[in-house]
């Protein structure tokens, strides 16, 4: 079992406070300058977690299209629900040695969601002042500037996460009741049973928390002051989980590989080669640690070596979309925009999730070349990506650059406004929206989009 599985939320007090202050798309009335969750966007990891959650949501009678899963860039082992959203720390994936452990956590959170355990918070949440999630990208285009500079600090700053200072709101605003936790545990076991998956991971997560002496009231922790003692839950889980006919079922090899590749990426972006080695120990020659090492090499400012390493990965697994995506990031950071666009195009062809993040990256790479002849294609690719990922603030900014190179000032200002809007910088968004609106005929779609930003309060 891993050393410390810290802060597994399961309805933690601060997570509930965040529920009153977090929405994934920026709502009217949201204000900048407030506390923000460090949310991360990555096509590969999001696809993995959606695949973990889909059968569980179906087993719970919930529509996957109506439940949003958001990755929080925090290395603590943590997950919580807010409204129709499930928030999962990247640390949960990193510290879970098997997919089944992460799946168990997701099953528990779906238990809270299906049980309507936050219904009593609705009025408070509606009255609470919301904040914007500032979303970064582990994927295309964000790490490029830092990698190109050769600065480890700069690469880290551009490594897929935009964070803000401060903790998550005030402590102790809400608390789950003991019965809700027990109900969520039971529900998780039911969903795992219905989907033919082992409850071992769920049990091991709680056993790890008990070993860390968390949730017991012995240690004072800002997240854990209202949870039932772990021995109460573990006693039930040990009996119920071991009674499952699926208890000894292991994850398929293909799922384990995808899980390890995600862990390697998280380790590389958060702790470089050192955390990759720490995560995988002596096993440094298999695909996952090599993947992490290639990304870490890229972020440290060694594009030639990184490209050589990722090409080795592609030779070993030529149909892995995300190896081609990383190749595109390396080339983009090296100023090789046409080659980067080709790599992203190949990634988009192979991507089973059809992620708008990767699709937009094709256009973003073309924009960096600043060739006016290529801007129409860049605009088309970015807009195509934004159709499925409208909250991609970085893509809006690259779209503004493409319009600027093309000489379309009004469209550039409107895209800039929308980029600021989705990044939570609402004052800046309104300034650029006002500039853009003056360049469009009243009543047109562009004029109305600008007006929507201007009129929100």
Could you give a quick summary of the protein structure above?
The chain is built from 21 helices and seven strands. It has 457 residues and is mostly helical.
Total of helices: 21
Alpha-carbon Rg, integer: 22 Å
Structural class: mainly alpha
Order of helices and strands: HEEHEEEHHHEEHHHHHHHHHHHHHHHH
- Identify the overall geometry: globular
**Strand percent estimate:** 5-15%
Structure, described:
This protein has two domains: 217 residues, no CATH class; 203 residues, Serine Threonine Protein Phosphatase 5, Tetratricopeptide repeat. It contains 21 helices and seven strands. The protein has a three-stranded mixed β-sheet, with helices on both faces. A two-stranded parallel ribbon has the order 1-6. A two-stranded parallel ribbon has the order 2-7. A hairpin with a 2-residue loop joins strand 4 and strand 5. The protein starts with 12 loop residues before the first helix and ends with a helix. The N terminus is likely disordered. Its EC number is 3.4.24.-. GO terms for molecular function: metallopeptidase activity. It is an enzyme of class 3 (hydrolase). Keywords: Hydrolase, Metal-binding, Metalloprotease, Protease, Signal, TPR repeat, Zinc.
Show the helix and strand layout:
Blueprint lengths: L12 H7 L2 E2 L14 E4 L1 H17 L8 E5 L6 E4 L2 E5 H6 L3 H16 L7 H6 L3 E2 L1 E4 L6 H6 L2 H6 L20 H17 L5 H12 L18 H13 L10 H28 L6 H13 L3 H14 L4 H13 L3 H14 L5 H14 L5 H14 L4 H14 L2 H14 L3 H12 L7 H11 L2
Parallel strand pairs: 1-6, 2-7, 3-5
Antiparallel strand pairs: 4-5
Helix pairs in contact: 2-4, 2-8, 4-8, 4-9, 8-10, 9-10, 11-12, 12-13, 13-14, 14-15, 15-16, 16-17, 16-18, 17-18, 18-19, 19-20, 19-21, 20-21
